[in-house]
Design a protein that fits this description.
Number of helices of chain A: 22
Distance between the termini of chain A: 56 Å
Largest interface: A-B, 35 and 30 residues
Largest sheet of chain B: 5 strands, antiparallel
Shape of chain A: globular
Order of helices and strands of chain B: HEHEEHEEHEEHEE
Oligomer: heterodimer
Distance between the termini of chain B: 45 Å
Helix content of chain A: 25-40%
Number of strands of chain B: 9
């Protein structure tokens, strides 16, 4: 039967009943009753961040690396508005988050009270769903619904805004099993006719390709297993989006590397020339497709997505399959095995020969130097030195992120935490904190840039407080490298505000926070620095001074097609300056 | 400039699709903010609203019916429906235009002021259009007229010449013909 308790108690009880172990948050006036309850129990542990934005990214890192819902607790007004970027980030990348926000008492709502803001209004368009709970009688139901909505279907962030008087008021608490949602029941199992149609298309493909995304990771480890089985069974090539890295092992010979704007030549060319494309849990984002009217012109496309609005949104799908990737892949495998299709081996041989020729271009090649550290080389060494360890990688946003995606090879899902859709600088360090909380014994590295890291550097303090041995590996070129790269491409090499004149001394900064700082300036010292970083049992910042003007290639410039990539080898000032025409310049 | 259009990353504007008008019935839980959610979707994603009508229609279940007239290419209309369907408080989205002939009706209040011949003429025309007089003085009438939007448009247009002061319209309520409900 329903037990009577206060709203604040319900929040904690609901978290415990939902299996929440950690909540990332920051206290304030409008959530004090909940913090008071938090302190009087031991089931749910609180991680005190240094800014609410950090709390959401930490919860994202936690969620992405475990597959569980990430939980956030912040106060009203600025607490809620600081969380907005993280919520938007989670919405774009489909990360399950439940964010509890305090609110001024119900009788003060609308009076411009101290630390009041229209939280549900502000977060309506950056959450999957949100609630303002005006009566304690509704609270228990809403709390459990929030978790259900966050993790079901296409995952996403859910905000529950709880006025302070509701936290104090007493009402009936019901457990999660008694809650059933009236309207929200997303479809997870596919229409079998569509599955058969898709298998039929694949069976007759001459130049097939798998194009997979974050949906495979979200579906859980089983989906990655099924994907691997299916890819190996068919012998088809596979590429993935930034968000999907790790679902398929990068060491496998059928793996073509990442596709899209900074994807490999072979992946993009194969996408362009394929005749059947199987898209699994990706959404034909503009960073993937390049110029849409020239995107994979001769292909039939099968699109598997749990969100019906993703299918036919940017490009036409010949077969749209609505469902959870895991279920759909399972059914496809079954049908494939039952029908034992007679595939065109000769055509596939020719297709692979073509792909190998593209691979032969070695699109990720760069010119190394004995005198200064090339950023690509730094990532390669970091990978070599950590690949046999239990390692999780987070990143900030920019060139370093793309180099990490290109040069760090992921073998397993949930090992790669990055801000894809929103492109949030400052994501990596808090995400590393959240990841390390979930995996205290693992090696967690934030591959960072010198500009991004400063956006949430305060979370070093969190890492120190909880003795989280996160490693921040900064590729320091003193530029906002990706901004500069675009200024070179688009704006005649005029570096407007993309050079940071007064960077902090990162080594001293690490010291000041109570961590360890290391600096590396020569390629020869790289391995030793990485060893020292790993060996230190505590938070480390590595200030890795890299070649200042290195750029990230290959690249599909804005407004160009997959077969119009700029390669690192043929980059001159001339090609860079004329790579994007007038129309492309207006694109982002 | 066709050259410019070719360069776009975004859904190819070069492919010409006709803009169609659709009437959607959206059944939603009547919870706070649900209308803001629906409208926010339209404004946030750049869709059009030509008419919007909303009220609770099933009180015991707290279900409201939102009737939206919108315009867009078939691809945009499909997106609108899917985007609405995935909202948590949405029960169902029905494209009435696809369900065959639709009954569409709205109500308008029309205030007309004037004296003499024009005043008599407005009353005579109101009778022809089946409008009811719901308020009157020696100097004005308020007519209440119901019917299809084109009919109401015509009535308003005529009244413009006869001393139209102001108009208030409900927007369209719509339903599919036949015995079956949504």
């Amino acid at each position: 039967m329903a037990r009577t308790m206060t709203g604040a108690e319900m929040v904690i009880k609901a978290m415990a009943d939902q299996g929440v172990e950690f909540v990332f948050g920051y206290p304030g006036g409008a959530v004090l009753p909940i913090y008071d309850e938090l302190a009087q129990q031991e089931k749910v542990k609180h991680v005190l961040v240094r800014q609410e934005g950090g709390a959401v990214h930490a919860a994202e890192g936690y969620a992405r690396s475990t597959g569980k819902v990430g939980v956030v607790l912040v106060t009203s007004g600025p607490g809620a508005t600081n969380a907005v970027t993280g919520l938007t980030d989670a919405l774009m990348d489909s990360i399950p988050i439940v964010c509890f926000t305090g609110q001024v008492p119900t009788h003060l709502i609308g009076s411009d009270a101290f630390q009041e803001c229209d939280t549900v209004g502000i977060t309506r368009s950056c959450t999957k769903h949100n609630y303002l709970v005006k009566s304690v009688d509704d609270l228990a139901r809403v709390l459990h619904e929030a978790f259900y909505v966050a993790r079901t279907g296409r995952p996403g962030p859910v905000v529950v805004d709880i006025p302070k008087d509701v936290q104090f008021a007493s009402g009936p608490y019901v457990g999660p099993s008694n809650i059933k949602h009236k309207t929200y029941t997303p479809r997870v199992k596919p229409e079998m006719a569509h599955v058969r149609e898709a298998v039929e298309l694949l069976a007759h493909a001459k130049r097939p390709i798998f194009y997979t995304g974050g949906g495979v990771i979200n579906s859980g480890p089983k989906a990655s297993q099924l994907l691997r089985e299916f890819v190996r069974l068919t012998g088809f090539p596979i590429t993935s989006t930034l968000m999907g890295l790790g679902a398929y092992p990068a060491s496998d010979k059928q793996w073509l590397g990442m596709l899209g704007m900074h994807g490999t030549y072979e992946a993009n060319m194969a996408m362009h020339d394929c005749d059947v494309m199987l898209c699994v849990g990706a959404r034909f984002d503009d960073r993937i497709t390049g110029r849409l009217d020239a995107f994979s012109p001769g292909s039939k496309r099968i699109h598997i997505d749990i969100d019906p609005s993703s299918v036919n949104k940017n490009t036409r799908a010949d077969v749209g399959i609505i469902g959870d990737c895991g279920y759909v892949l399972e059914e496809m495998l079954k049908v494939w095995r039952e029908t034992v299709p007679q595939v065109d081996r000769n055509a596939h041989k020719g297709w692979w020969k073509q792909i190998e020729a593209w691979r032969g271009r070695r699109s990720l090649a760069y010119k190394n130097s004995p005198d200064y550290i090339m950023p690509q080389y730094a990532i390669e060494r970091l990978y070599e030195k950590t690949k046999d360890r239990d390692v999780y990688i987070t990143t900030e946003v920019g060139q370093h992120q793309m180099w990490a995606a290109q040069f760090f090879k992921f073998e397993e899902p949930n090992r790669w935490m990055t801000s894809g859709g929103l492109g949030t600088m400052g994501y990596g360090l808090p995400a590393a904190v959240g990841t390390q909380i979930a995996h205290p014994k693992s090696l967690v590295i934030d591959i960072a840039g010198d500009a991004s890291i400063l956006m949430n550097i305060q979370e070093m303090s969190t890492a120190v407080q909880y003795r989280l041995p996160v490693k921040v590996f900064i590729l320091n070129n003193q530029y906002m490298g990706m901004v500069r790269q675009w200024q070179q491409l688009l704006h005649g090499n005029r570096y407007s505000e993309s050079y940071t004149e007064a960077l902090p001394d990162f080594v001293k900064l690490a010291d000041a926070y109570g961590g360890k700082g290391l600096r590396c300036e020569k390629p020869g010292d790289l391995d030793a620095t990485i060893d020292e970083m790993i060996a230190y049992n505590g938070p480390v910042i590595v200030d890795c001074r890299v070649s200042a003007l290195a750029n990230c290639f290959p690249m599909i410039p804005s407004g160009k097609a997959h077969n119009e990539m700029i390669m690192g080898e043929d980059v001159s000032d001339e090609t860079v300056a004329t790579a994007i025409d007038k129309a492309g310049k207006s694109l982002v | 400039m066709p050259q410019t259009q070719k360069q776009s990353h975004y859904p190819d504007p070069g492919i010409k699709q006709d803009v169609v008008s659709r009437t959607l019935s959206v059944l939603v839980d009547n919870e706070p903010g649900v209308l803001a959610r629906v409208i926010g979707l339209f404004s946030g994603r750049g869709y059009n609203i030509d008419s919007l009508t909303v009220t609770e229609t099933e009180h015991e279940k707290h279900v409201s019916r939102i009737t939206i007239m919108t315009r867009g290419t078939p691809a945009v209309i499909e997106q609108i429906k899917h985007q609405l369907e995935r909202m948590v408080p949405v029960h169902r989205v029905a494209d009435l235009t696809l369900l065959g002939e639709t009954l569409e009706c709205e109500l308008a209040l029309i205030k007309v002021a004037g004296k003499g011949e024009k005043r008599i003429e407005s009353l005579r025309l109101a009778e022809i259009y089946g409008a009811k007089v719901i308020d009157a003085s020696t100097e004005h009438f308020v007519f209440q007229v119901t019917g299809g939007s084109p009919e109401i448009e015509r009535f308003i247009k005529i009244m413009t010449e006869l001393g139209l002061v102001e108009v208030s319209r409900t927007g369209i309520a719509a339903m599919a013909r036949g015995a079956k409900g949504l």
